[in-house]
Design brief:
Blueprint (H helix, E strand, L loop, with lengths): L1 H9 L8 H16 L3 H26 L33 E5 L7 E7 L2 E12 L12 E7 L7 H15 L10 E11 L4 H16 L7 E8 L5 E3 L3 H5 L3 E8 L4 E8 L3 H35 L4 H21 L1
Parallel strand pairs: 4-5
Antiparallel strand pairs: 1-2, 2-3, 3-5, 6-7, 6-8, 8-9
Helix pairs in contact: 4-5
The structure holds 2-acetamido-2-deoxy-beta-D-glucopyranose (3 copies).
The site of one 2-acetamido-2-deoxy-beta-D-glucopyranose (NAG) has 2 residues, from loops.
GO cellular component, one term: cytoplasmic exosome (RNase complex)
InterPro entries: ExoRNase_PH_dom1, ExoRNase_PH_dom2, ExoRNase_PH_dom2_sf, PNPase/RNase_PH_dom_sf, Ribosomal_Su5_D2-typ_SF, RNase_PH
GO molecular function: RNA binding
Amino acid sequence: MNDKRRACLFIQPCKGQTERDREKDVNDRQLENSSANAPLILDVVAFGLSIVGLCFVEFSRLFFIPTTIKEMSSTTTTTTTNIKRDDTRLSNQIRPIESEQALLNKADGSAKFSQGKSSVLAAVYGPIDVKTARKEKISKSVVDVSFTPATGNTTYFDKEREMLVRNAVESIILTLLHPRTQINVIVQVYSNDGSIISCAINACCLALLDAGIELNCLISSITLSFTHDNQIYLDPTQKEENNSKGLAVYAINSKSEIVMTKTTGIIGESLYFQGLNIAKQSCEKVSAYTRLAVRNRIMGDQTQPSTTTTNTNNTLVEESKDKEMKDSS
Ligand SMILES: *[C@@H]1O[C@H](CO)[C@@H](O)[C@H](O)[C@H]1NC(C)=O
Ligand SMILES: *[C@@H]1O[C@H](CO)[C@@H](O)[C@H](O)[C@H]1NC(C)=O
Ligand SMILES: *[C@@H]1O[C@H](CO)[C@@H](O)[C@H](O)[C@H]1NC(C)=O
């Protein structure tokens, strides 16, 4: 009976509608009419708020030029049920992302990329002359990546990470443009709290953009951990990685081609492909972040008074003013 009544509200016209129901309907409509002049006030308030918001955005552009954008709580709604994790994230949430570009003076480009407590600095030097002739390639430039852990000597695992990062990064660089040269990418881990390969690849992409190296497309990477009760956790911390039964690292470029994947542990085929879908969506979000970070940096430079272009323009303006003064006198 109750269900029938509820259905009536949605499907019009309704035969089973009683007199009282119709009265209620009319009353409801009158209520709607009486509040008809409210939207005008709301509009005015909303307009005011949007202006305040715009001003704030402009101000933040002026003052926070090293892009530190804290956001990125991806809302990828997939088949995974939303179980709270230790750090109160949902299973499909990325940790807050932060980045900073051009930190190093001597490098051609550099970027620091943090996902939660995992933080990596990447520096790009090049294209430069090849130091060891043995490495030189006649038709293209050589991409050399070195991966340095936060503490201790480089181990076998770091060499493996280095190789994975190199493979991922080389795929997006247009190496044919600079034959017989070398592009060095230095990856220094500040702190490792899981998903470090992904964090390193994301840092490299931003650093390459900062260095102005010609790229095919962008690349972004995400790590997934598979728990023993078949949950998929996005962007796991070190603890979650330790407690998982399997890990998968995906690097996907902005044409949504899979550039690199690496799995450890035992993961079923269906889980792997389920993970791949989640990774594709998340990588798009990371790429969007990278674009935003670069755009903000470029916009920031325009408003900065100390950049070379504005300086020359200022001097030009001053000179012309001087001329005018002389002419008038
Ligand atoms: C790290 O490398 C240095 C030099 O190769 C060596 O002397 C040192 O014992 C190494 N440390 C560890 C913890 O292996
Ligand atoms: C994870 O495991 C590694 C060794 O496998 C250990 O050194 C590290 O302390 C562990 N981290 C956490 C947070 O459990
Ligand atoms: C600065 O000068 C360049 C050329 O000298 C010109 O194209 C540009 O529009 C100028 N910018 C401003 C803000 O005046």
